[in-house]
């Protein structure tokens, strides 16, 4: 694969990925805005349901597109890793043939330079693919944290402790006795 094909291929992956992520973010913002409009009674329940259905369908479609792209990127990254291994084997084989005197220096230099260029381009593409995958992982982690925060109770009332099976922290008799001991010890 030539370097220009590698660059244009990466560009297509990156553009598709960025477009899906941008559209996904937009639909999520619209969904949050719709939820807020319902919460403030700015729209009726029926309007909310109609618009919500459209947004949910769009969200579902874009998420499936994103999953598909991620799988394709992972498959491509796996292919790139195999390609790197193959190029490294070619280079090692070339080194062996040159060291054994089977290949003259001029031929060795041309071939090793070509393999090194391919190796460098492949590694750069793999790094870029890794960055795209890291962006998805980071976005998923951020969304998960936001949803956990949204579901967490804001104040821990005794009722929330009971419903979650927690025991509220209270000062025990031993703790209050321990706090008073130093003052009694200084008096003696």
Write up this protein.
By secondary structure, the protein is mostly helical. The protein has one domain. Helices cover 86% and strands 0% of the residues. The chain is rod-shaped and about 85 Å long. It starts with a helix and ends with a helix.
Primary descriptors:
188 residues, 86% helix, disordered C terminus, 5 helices, mainly alpha
What is the overall silhouette?
A: rod-shaped
- The counted number of beta strands is 0
**Nearest-integer average pLDDT:** 78
Overall number of structural domains: 1
Judged by helices, strands and strand pairing, the structural class is mainly alpha
Which series of helices and strands comes N to C? Answer: HHHHH
Q: Helix count, per DSSP?
A: 5
Oligomer description: single chain
> For the terminal residues, how far apart are their CA atoms?
88 Å
- Largest beta-sheet characterization: none
Strand content: under 5%
- What is the radius of gyration? 30 Å
Measured as a percent range, the helix fraction is over 70%
Spans of at least 5 consecutive residues with low confidence:
153-188
Give a quick precis of the structure.
With 188 residues, the protein is mainly alpha-helical. The chain has five helices and no strands. The protein has one domain.
Protein topology:
Layout: H1 3-39, H2 45-99, H3 105-151, H4 158-164, H5 173-187
Helix pairs in contact: 1-2, 1-3, 2-3
């Amino acid at each position: 694969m030539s370097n220009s094909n590698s660059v244009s291929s990466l560009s297509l992956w990156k553009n598709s990925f960025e477009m899906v992520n941008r559209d996904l973010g937009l639909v999520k913002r619209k969904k949050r805005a719709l939820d807020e409009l319902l919460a403030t009674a700015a729209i009726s329940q029926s309007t909310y349901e109609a618009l919500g259905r459209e947004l949910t369908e769009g969200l579902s479609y874009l998420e499936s597109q994103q999953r598909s792209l991620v799988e394709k990127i992972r498959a491509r990254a796996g292919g790139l890793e195999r390609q790197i291994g193959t190029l490294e084997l070619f280079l090692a084989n070339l080194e062996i043939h040159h060291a054994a005197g089977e290949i003259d220096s001029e031929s060795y230099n041309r071939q090793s330079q070509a393999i090194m260029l391919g190796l460098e381009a492949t590694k750069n593409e793999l790094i870029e693919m890794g960055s795209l995958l890291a962006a998805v992982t980071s976005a998923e982690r951020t969304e998960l944290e936001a949803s956990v925060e949204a579901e967490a109770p804001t104040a821990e009332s005794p009722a929330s402790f009971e419903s979650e099976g927690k025991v509220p922290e209270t000062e025990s008799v031993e703790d209050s006795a321990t706090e008073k001991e130093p003052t009694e010890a200084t008096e003696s």
